[in-house]
Amino acid sequence: MRVKCVLCDKIESIPNDSAEAKRLRNRPIHTYMCKVCEDRIAERTKQRAATGNFRLYKSPKSDDEW
Q1: Would you say which domain of life the source belongs to (predicted)?
Q2: pLDDT in tens, 8-66
Q3: pTM of the complete model
C-alpha cells in the first residue's frame, strides 16, 4: 500500500497486511506520518516537556451512574 506523509508529503510503501494499512483503509480520518517526522515530533515534545511549561490538556472524566 502506498501512503503519503501528512507533514512532508513523502510517499512510502507499507505492507498491505499490516495493522497500520488496515487502520488507514477502514478509518479515513486516521493519517500516516513517516518515521522521520514522527521521531522529530517526539523529540521536540520531550524537549518542551523538560522545560516545565508543557501541559497535556485531558478532558475531565465524569462518573456516570448509568
Answers
A1: Bacteria
A2: 999 999 999 999 899 898 987 888 899 999 999 999 988 988 888 877 777 777 777 76
A3: 0.64
Q: Report the C-alpha gap between 19 and 59 in whole angstroms.
A: 28
Query: Which three cell numbers mark 34?
Result: 513517516
Three-state DSSP class for residue 37: helix
What are the cell numbers at 59? Answer: 478532558
Give residue for cell 503519503.
Answer: 4
Cα separation, 54 vs 5, whole angstroms: 26
Q: State which H helix or E strand residue 63 sits in.
A: none
Q: DSSP state, 18?
A: S
